[in-house]
Amino acid sequence: MSSLSWEDAPPASGALAPDTLRSIRNTLALGGSLVATWTVALGVRLVLPRHLGPESFGAFQFADAFTTAFFVVTSLGVETYIRKEVSTRKEHASDFIGGLLVLRVVMSILVIAVMTALMHAAGRPVHIRRLVLFFAAYQFFSGLNETGAALLHAVGAVDGVALLNVGTKLVWGAGILGALWMGAGVEGVAVALAASEALKTGALLLLARRHLDLKLAVDLRRTMAVVSASLPFYLNYLAHTVYGRLDVSLMSFLTSDAEVGWYGAAQNLAGVALLITPLMGWVLLPMFSRAAARSEQDLDRVVRRTLEAVLSAAVPVSLLLGLGADVLIPAVFGRAFAPAAGSLRILAPMFILTYAAMVTSTALIRLERGWAVTAISLSGLGANAMLNWFLIPASWDAFGRGGAGVGAAWALVATEAAVTTLMLILLGSRAFDRRSVTTLTKTALACVVVLAVHHSMASLGPARIAADALIYVGLVVALGAVRIGEVVEVVRLAIRQKAGYAGTI
Would you list the DSSP string of 83-118? Predict the structure, then answer.
C-alpha cells in the first residue's frame, strides 16, 4: 500500500490522482475480503492434512494438481486480456463472453476424456479416478469464476465481489468441515469444493449482468479474435500454472502418496506467504493500464513503488517461515508431517521471487511485451520439468522420508529465480530507482542480522522465532525500510474518499 503514496510524485499534484484513489479504495475492499476468506481457507488448510493423514492428503494434492495442470488449457488467457481491455471499454465484454462459455464447455469435455485415459493407462486406482472427476467439476466452475471476477475487477465493481468471496468461502469451509465430520473423507471434501464454486458462478453472472450490462450472445468470430489476442497471456499463464503443479503430479507417479502428502503440507503452510497474490492479480493490470494512459513516467513510478512494496511485504514472511520450519510443521500438522520441514525451509524464500515475477510480468504485458514474457515462461516450464524429473527421485534416494519434496522445492526455486531474473533484465531501469534499491538494501541488511541472531540463540528453542520477528520489525523501522507514515496516509485518504467513489464503481 505504501507504493501508492510517492515521494517522487509530480509536484503539481496536491493529492492523489482520482484513479489512484479508486485503486486504493478497491484494494482495501478486496484486501478486506481476502483477509476474511484466507482466515477460512487457512483454517481448512491446517485441518485437512492433520485429519486426512499423509497418504490421503497426498491423494487430495495429486487430484488438485493433476486437474489444475490439465484445466489450465481451458482458461485461454482471457482474464489478463479482460483486465487490460475491458477496464477502458466495458461494453466489449458482451462481444465474446457467450462464445467463450461454449468453447470452455467443449474443451472441458475433451480434457476430462484425456485425463481419464491417462489414469487408466497408468493403472491409477478407481478411487483416485473418481476423486479426479470431482476435482474436474471444481476446476470447471473455478475457471468460470476467474473470468467473472476479472470482468468485475476491470470495471472497478469490487464491493459485490468482496462480499461474494467471503460468503462462498464460508460455504466452502463449512462444506469441507461437514464432509470430514460425516466421515465422507477426501471425496466429500472434493464435492464441497465443486458445490461452493458452482454457487459462486451463478452469483458472479448476476453481478456481471448488473455492472456491465452483460449479454451472453454467442459470436464465435469475435470470441476467436479475443482468444487470438490473448494467446501470449494464455501461454504465459499455462506455463506458470503447469510448472507450479508439475512437481506434485510427477512426484505422485515417481514416489508415493505419503511423499506427496508431506510436500503438500509444506506447500500449504508456505502458501501463507502468497496471501496477497490474488489481490495483486486483481488490481495490478488495471492500475498499470490507467497509469500508462496518463503518461509513461506515471507508469514507471507505479511499477517501481509497487515492486518495492510487495517485496518489502514478502521478505519478512518468507524469512520467518524458513527459520521456523522445523517448529511450525509439527506444531500445525502433527509429528506425522515432520518430514515436510525440509521442503518448507527451501520453499520459503521462493515467494519473494514469485512476487517480483508477478509485478514484472504485469508491467511487461502493459508495455506490450507479452510475447517476451511468454517465451521466458515457456523456457521456465521446460527447465522445471527436467529439474523435477531428475531431482525428485535423486533427492528421495539421498534423503529418504521427505526427500522427494526437497528435490521438488529446489527445482521450483531454481526455475523461479531464473525466470524472475530474466524478466527484471527485460524490464530494465523501470524496475528500480535509487529509493527502491535503498529500501531493499536495508531490508536485506535486516535479514542478515536476523539470521545471525537466530543461529546465536539456538538454546532458546522455539521462542527464538518470536525474537526474530521483533528484531526484524525493529530493524526495518529504525533503518527506514518501512515508511509507516505513508501507509497510514494512503489508508486514511482511501477511507475518506470511499463515499465519493462508491457511486462510480
Answer: HHHTTT-GGGGGGTHHHHHHHHHHHHHHHHHHHHHH
Any residues with CB less than 8 A from the CB of 104 and at least 6 apart, and which? 74, 76, 140, 143, 144
Whole-angstrom distance, CA of residue 269 vs CA of residue 4: 29
CA distance 270 to 317: 9
> Which sequence spans correspond to the domains of the chain?
2-502
Three-state DSSP string of 275-322: CCHHHHHHHHHHHHHHHHHHCHHHHHHHHHHHHHHHHHHHHHHHHHHH
369-390 mean pLDDT: 86
**Cα 437 to Cα 444: distance, rounded to the nearest angstrom:** 10
Cβ atoms of residues 420 and 426 within 8 Å:
no
* Single-letter amino acid, residue 85: E
Q: For 44-98, how does the pLDDT look when each residue is reduced to its tens digit (9 = 90+)?
A: 666 778 778 888 888 888 898 899 889 988 988 888 788 777 777 778 888 888 8
Residue 495, amino acid: I
Q: What is the DSSP code string of 207-250?
A: HHHHHH-------HHHHHHHHHHTHHHHHHHHHHHHHHHHHHHH
Please give the average per-residue pLDDT across 430-454, as a whole number.
88
Q: Residue for cell digits 514507471?
A: 300
Q: Report in angstroms the alpha-carbon separations of 396 from 254, 260, 326, 358.
A: 10, 12, 19, 31
For residues 500 and 505, give the distance between their C-alpha atoms in angstroms, rounded to a whole number: 10
**Rg (the chain; Cα; Å):** 23
pLDDT tens by residue, 455-496: 888 777 777 888 888 888 888 888 887 766 655 554 454 444
Q: What is the pLDDT of residues 159-213, one digit of tens each?
A: 666 677 777 777 777 877 787 778 777 888 888 889 888 988 888 888 888 878 7
pLDDT grade, residue 21 (50/70/90)? very low
**Dist CA 243 CA 382 (whole Å):** 8
Cα–Cα nearest to 337, from 48, 53, 45, 51: 53
Global pTM exceeds 0.70: no
Q: Which of 380, 442, 436, 367 is nearest to 412 (CA)?
A: 380
d(CA 159, CA 430): 32
Produce one character per residue of 322-346: b if its CB has 16 or more CB atoms within 10 Å, e if not: bbbbeebbeebbeebbbbbbbbbbb
**Contact assessment for residue 277 and residue 314, using Cβ atoms and an 8 Å cutoff:** no
